[in-house]
Design brief:
By secondary structure, this protein is α/β, with parallel strands linked by helices. The protein has 2 domains: 188 residues, 3-Layer(aba) Sandwich (Rossmann fold); 178 residues, Rossmann fold (3-Layer(aba) Sandwich), CATH 3.40.50.2000. It is built from 15 helices and 13 strands. Helix 3 links the parallel strand 4 and strand 5.
Length: 379
């Protein structure tokens, strides 16, 4: 098939999933064209059958805000005609699915639009009165719609009260990228005195509640020599740094900034802390499991679909940093428990969330759309 993909090219979950899926499709022999304003951070453009088309937005004094959605629609239309695309897979409803549907109207052919909803395009952006009508429209006008968790499917039905059939295809990992990780040297660098390592990866926005990460770290540190790795940037990071400086523990926190890949860092850590108010899926929790790192998270959103509590990780009520710290201490102090849960986590990631299964599901969905057989599937 000739497949177009449009997504946010940032390090967020939707861009990561789009990039990994695109590369897998290209390796499977499909022609895959990425259409976006920058090269996605995880995308290896050197892959065979993979193409990149940059969307540029012209500057014009009349435009107070750059009309990226319109420029994207024009680029999708041009690529669809020039490369004879069968499918446009839009990751995130606004603006990608809306632009893809507009592009289909521009060229007037049978271009199929697959929309994957990842979370905040439903739970945050989609709920905004300014975007709710167009988000509902893009869902209804898409040939097929997928979501990354059962939680998100329920959110779509509640927020948009639409009757669209929605397929569930979980996010995924490629086991081959995790099987040969050797974090020994990196672990020695990050924990020179043999300290235990906690890690948090996010965009440090309010929904991530990163001060709960900090409070958990402080409590664990009182019981066990521990260091904290922070990966990513965002508006709440300076506040966390300020508090760490006040408490005199800033030297025990390693700030890693944004990184295209976090596999090595996850593998070097013992426990991932994820204290979010909500998570539609929790891709970083899955990536931690694949790296053999135990996720310790809040019991919210789609995370219960990823983690088996007490088997492959731990989940606590939102805001309960005391229980989170107690579980971290228990796990870190019991080496057998730590090893067993690590093995369980990796096994579940490789077995239930293997990229091969998700790739096959998407390929079936594309074929169904092309043949106009629309049938929703479950996880």
């Amino acid at each position: 098939m000739n497949i177009g993909i449009t997504c946010y090219p940032t390090i967020g979950g939707s861009g990561v999933v789009a990039s990994e899926l695109g590369m897998a499709l290209a390796n499977a022999g499909h022609k895959v064209h990425f259409i976006t304003y920058a090269l996605p951070s995880r995308l290896d453009i050197g892959c065979k059958n993979l193409y990149y088309h940059e969307v540029s937005v012209p500057e014009y004094p009349l435009f107070e805000y750059a009309p990226y959605s319109l420029a994207l629609a024009s680029n999708i239309a041009n690529c669809a005609q020039e490369w004879k695309l069968d499918i446009i897979h839009a990751h995130y409803a606004i603006p990608h699915a809306a632009s893809a549907i507009l592009a289909r109207g521009i060229i007037g052919n049978n271009l199929k639009v697959i929309t994957t909803l990842h979370g905040t395009d439903v739970t945050l952006v989609g709920r905004n009165p300014s975007f709710l009508p167009i988000t509902r429209f893009t869902i209804e006008q898409s040939d097929c719609v997928t979501v990354v968790s059962e939680f998100l499917r329920n959110e779509v039905c509640e927020v948009f009260t639409c009757e669209k059939e929605i397929s569930g295809i979980h996010n995924f990992v490629d086991p081959n990228e995790y099987k040969n990780l050797n974090p020994v040297d990196l672990k020695k660098t990050l924990a020179p005195k043999g300290e235990k390592l906690l890690i948090h990866v996010s965009n440090f926005r309010p929904v991530k509640c990163v001060m709960d990460v900090f409070e958990t770290f402080l409590a664990v540190k009182k019981a066990i020599p521990t260091r904290l790795i922070l990966v990513g940037t965002g508006p709440d990071l300076p506040m966390l740094e300020h508090k760490a400086r006040e408490k005199g523990v800033l030297e025990e926190i390693q700030l890693m900034g944004n990184r295209n890949s976090v596999k090595d860092l996850l593998a070097a850590a013992d426990i991932l802390l994820l204290t979010s108010r909500t998570e539609s899926f929790g891709l970083v929790a899955l990536e931690a499991m694949a790296a053999g790192t135990i996720p310790l998270t809040t019991h919210v959103g789609g995370l219960p679909e990823v983690i088996e509590h007490g088997v492959t990780g731990w989940m606590v009520p939102f805001g309960d940093t005391k229980t989170m710290a107690d579980l971290a201490i228990k796990t870190l102090q019991e080496s057998t428990l730590l090893k067993t849960m690590s093995q369980n986590a990796q096994h579940r990631a490789f077995d239930k969330f293997n990229i091969k299964s998700s790739l096959a599901s998407y390929e079936r969905l594309y074929q169904q759309a092309i043949s106009s057989k629309k049938k929703a599937s479950s996880f």
